[in-house]
Amino acid sequence: MVQTIIKRSQVPFDSRDLEICQHVFDDLSTMADVPRNSEEAERIAAIVVELYRQGVHNPEHLKTMVQGARGLLEKQPAQAA
Asked: CA of 25: how far to CAs of 3, 11, 41, in Å?
């Protein structure tokens, strides 16, 4: 069973935290061809930071969760039966 993260960290970000979030944001915005000054970029950044504050610190997990939340996951072609 998947546990829900209920406690949000109140600890301020340090430079390592910011570096991880920035890298994830850069990868996602490049992959989705989203301009950095767009509303969609702001939404992506907000989701990255919120998930990180909730305890998702693995960059690949962050990317996957944001992709799912924003509908950025690449559609896989249907396999022939």
From this structure: 25, 21, 8
Rounded Cα distance between 81 and 73, Å, is 23
Q: What is the mean pLDDT of each run of 10 residues along the chain (81 residues)?
A: 53 91 96 92 95 95 92 55 45
CB-based burial of residue 80 (10 Å sphere; 0-12 exposed, 13-18 middle, 19+ buried)? exposed
Report the number of secondary-structure helices (H) and strands (E) in the chain.
3, 0
Supply the pTM of this predicted model. Answer: 0.75
Residue with tokens 């570096």: 19
